[in-house]
């Protein structure tokens, strides 16, 4: 069995994220982060599935209601969204009430990251790496703390 390919090469298509409240997740990824809603399915009045497209690429994220009695597990995966004007984007989010677990900061490997959680607790990184994204990272060693004066 061969892996599905596009243009002769394997391509990443989407990530599936399980949620306790798909409508709240749609609001976060769509209204807050700016992804475009492609489709949404409901069971009665309750949203149980949605798929959103990243505005800067053709990748998508699928949001799926966790099954009855199933736990939504977080902590094993972090979702990364890249945006060139990270500081401006994060300021707009903060001004609208979004809480960051870590505001934008330059990381030792040269990428600038901000961290926040979606409504289910899945960790999200907003970052800018630019040309460095497809290059080997050159991490800087942590600086030694200054000695205390006597």
In words, what does this structure look like?
The chain has two helices and eight strands, in the order βαββββαβββ. With 150 residues, the chain is an alpha/beta fold. It has two domains: 1-68, Roll (2,3-Dihydroxybiphenyl 1,2-Dioxygenase, domain 1); 77-141, 2,3-Dihydroxybiphenyl 1,2-Dioxygenase, domain 1. The strands form two sheets. It has a four-stranded mixed β-sheet with strand order 1-4-3-2, covered by helices on one side. A four-stranded mixed β-sheet has the order 5-8-7-6, covered by helices on one side. A hairpin with a 6-residue loop joins strand 3 (46-53) and strand 4 (60-65). The model has no long low-confidence stretch (mean pLDDT 88).
CATH 2nd-level architecture of the largest domain: Roll
CATH C-level category of the largest domain: Alpha Beta
Provide mean pLDDT, rounded: 88
Low-confidence stretches: none
* Structural shape: globular
Gyration radius (Cα, Å) is: 19 Å
Residue fraction in strands: 25-35%
Q: How much helicity do the residues have? A: 10-25%
What is the CA-CA span between the terminal residues? Answer: 70 Å
Broad structural category: alpha/beta
Number of helical segments?
A: 2
Q: Tell me about the largest β-sheet.
A: 4 strands, mixed
Order of helices and strands: EHEEEEHEEE
| Strands ordered across the widest β-sheet | 1-4-3-2
**How many beta-strand elements?**
8
CATH-defined topology of the largest domain:
2,3-Dihydroxybiphenyl 1,2-Dioxygenase, domain 1
Q: Can you say what the CATH homologous superfamily of the largest domain is?
A: 2,3-Dihydroxybiphenyl 1,2-Dioxygenase, domain 1
Total number of domains: 2
